[in-house]
Amino acid sequence: MKLRSNILFFSGFQLFSNPNHGFSFPTIRHEPNTNRRGKGMAWIVNGLKPLKCFCIATVVSSLLLTSRMVIAIDVTERLEIAKQYYILGDYEQTVAELEKIISALHKIKISEKIEAYKYLAFGYIALGDLEKGKKMFERVLRLNPDMVLNPVLISPKIIQIFEEAKNELMEEGEEYKMSAPISVSPLVSSSNQKMAVLPFRNTSKREEYNWLGEAIADALVDGLRNIEYFIIIDRPYIKKTIKNLNINLSSRTIENELPKIGRYLVTNIIIVGSYQLLEDNIRIIAKFVEVETGKIIFSTKVSGKLQDLFVLQDQMYEAVLANLNLNGYKQLNKKILQPKPSDITPYKYYITGLENYYLSSPQGYMDAVTQFENALKLDERYALAWSGLAQAYAAWGFYKEQRGEESSELYEKAFEAGKKAAGLNPKFTEVYRALAFCYLQIGDFDNAKKEAMRALSHNSLDAESWEILALTNPTGDENWALDKLKKAIELNPRLYSAHIAIGNFYTSKKKYDDALLHYNEAFKINPLSEEVYYVNMGVVYKNQSNYDEAIRHFQKALALNPNCSAAYNNLGIVYHLRKDLKMAIDNYHLAIKANPRSIGARLNIAKALLEIDRTEEAVTELKEALKYNPQDFQEEEIKKILDLIKEKK
Fold it and tell me: Is the separation of the CB atoms in 118 and 136 below 8 Å?
């Protein structure tokens, strides 16, 4: 596998042209892999393969049954494809796909029929045909009178047409009987409620079961994040917050600290709980607490055998749903969809691996891999452990590649684990997100887009998948990509990498105040991103020709990480702009030493060397850059320079 040079930081003004892949936000870490081009939208356009029935029909009824199954599969596939087109903003193709299957909708499940009409309404309204959109919503409401749309995800224009359709149907009286008004708790009276689930507290003295606190919280999060009414705050960020606030989660007075935690997390609701073990039995209690008032909105408890933990988690989730009174959410899953292992021992290893992964360090990734592998030794069909393994290998590979270290083997292992997970559980969002992340890291934007869209088709609230989709930028429209990044932040305001990407976008547009706003927000969210923060801030100052301030920021980044290739490369550019070629070349050399795959640094040093007639050295650097599989525009630039050198000779 050939790896691409990596762009973690915004490179800002380079001494060579940079017409990116369509428009790629500079936090796209890799450049497009030309070996994988040509796929593009083919998986969507050509995804409908003729369905053939190779059977001898000895019984007519059997043949008819088979025919119906083929039609149903075809309709279901087209529905998924239409939804993918809508995500991409191709509304004409969305409508075209759905109009093809409209006559066959009676052959599929009610839930799929509702989805088809809903997306057809979305498509019509996006294209300006409001009347057709309203008619499709009327069909939706006749099938599900309690249907609601989430204004966090759906535009005000579509919400308005939907409400008009609902009001007109209500006026029809006997022809359309609207069900009783939805009874909802204060939690869901607004569709923009933010929730944070804290690790549950172990009230027993059996420390070997401390991992259960993370496990119970993780399972509850997995269920709640699939409900469109809520935005669930990332657990890794919650853990960092609690650590920064120096709060002891095991304290009996933890509930007194909730207002402070809530203010820091900017959340409406905090879920806290505890569990108690007695021999082989366990009792779990969960409380939903309103941050502003400290009032317990409701509490629930379940108890049973520890070996039945997964059943108890489902019972806890069902009790939560009952208390939330989500009567209008008819497609709600009553059980946690998280893939379950054969027993709780592999689950323990998985949860421990997850906690190590959240540390976001080389040792953390290494320990996570060990724990996930321990889980798989006990249950090789545990999809969640395979998914965790894929994410750990991919993140570890990315960490190493950023530092110019060999990472191809880790990416290969990530792909292997991710595909294994997808084969075991094809409806699990994290699996496709992990694969999308892997493809993004090696610069295969087509497949990264494909897997991100698959993840979103299973959970449209997955912020990280929206971010990955934006970074692949399949439309080539920079505003489209920016819109998707903003959607990711709306779903997860603490997604610091999305803030960095938006900051980079504004830097490229010379909107420096907006850029600084997002860089500062990213740093506030994740102080561990300090190195990235100083490099990107330095680029802003460099682009404003404030070279002294730029140098100061790049040096701060190097104080944190003496092997930061991006900082050295940008320092080289600053000195280059100041006509101090010796200092420029020295820093370019240091950038290449820190990351031999830094094609940008090699191009920059070649240009500097040519300016002082060190032609042979420049040629060597350019040829070396070609070894690292540069982007098309970089390869063209290199070959152009080499041709000019030949002509001069």
Answer: yes
Residue 74, token pair as written in the block? 């075809």
Cβ neighbours, 10 Å, residue 57? 12
Give the model's pLDDT for residue 548: 95
Q: The tokens of 405 are what?
A: 């270290």
CB 289 within 8 A of CB 269: yes
Q: What is the mean pLDDT of the chain?
A: 77
Q: How far is CA 222 from CA 200, 254, 307, 314, 634, in A?
A: 15, 23, 20, 11, 43
All domains of the chain in start order, with CATH: 1-31+460-649 (1.25.40.10), 60-175 (1.25.40.10), 186-326 (3.40.50.10070)
Which of 476, 528, 521, 474 is closest to 502 using CA atoms?
A: 521
Give per-residue pLDDT as tens, 598-640. 888 999 999 999 999 898 998 999 888 888 767 767 788 888 8
Give pLDDT, residue 336.
Answer: 60
Using alpha carbons only, what angle is made at residue 354 by residues 441 and 307, rounded to the nearest 5 degrees?
145
* Residue 527: count of CB within 10 angstroms of its CB: 12
Does residue 592 sit in helix, strand or coil? helix
Residue 97: its H or E element: helix 91-101
pLDDT at 391 (0 to 100): 87
Q: Which two tokens stand for residue 155?
A: 């535009």
Q: Quick: pLDDT tens for 286-324.
A: 998 888 888 888 888 999 999 999 999 989 988 888 777
Predicted structure pTM score: 0.64
Element containing residue 201 per DSSP (H, E): strand 201-202
What stretches in the chain show pLDDT beneath 70? 1-74, 103-109, 150-153, 171-192, 228-229, 325-338, 402, 404, 474-475, 527-529, 629, 632, 648-649
Q: What is the dihedral of CA 368, 369, 372, 376, to 10 degrees?
A: -170
Question: Do residues 113 and 143 touch, judged by C-beta distance below 8 A?
Answer: yes
Helical segments of 403-495, H only = 408-424, 429-441, 445-458, 463-472, 478-491
Supply the pLDDT for residue 538.
93
> Would you state the pLDDT for residue 91?
86
Alpha-carbon separation of residue 252 from 203, 278, 314, 418 (angstroms) = 9, 19, 26, 40
- Angle subtended at Cα 227 by Cα 170 and Cα 147, rounded to the nearest 5 degrees: 10
- 46: helix, coil or strand? coil
**Residue 361 has what DSSP assignment?**
S
The count of C-alpha atoms lying within 13 angstroms of the C-alpha of 580, restricted to the half-sphere facing its C-beta, is: 12
Give the Cβ contact number of residue 626 at 10 Å: 15
* Partners of 633 in beta bridges: none
CA–CA separation, 269 and 492 (whole Å): 15
Backbone angles phi, psi at 501, to 5 degrees: -60, -45
Backbone angles phi, psi at 195, to 5 degrees: -125, 145
Q: Which two tokens stand for residue 341?
A: 């292992």
How many Å apart are CA 592 and CA 129, to the nearest integer? 56
Picking from 464, 425, 448, 476, the residue whose alpha carbon sits closest to that of residue 43 is 448
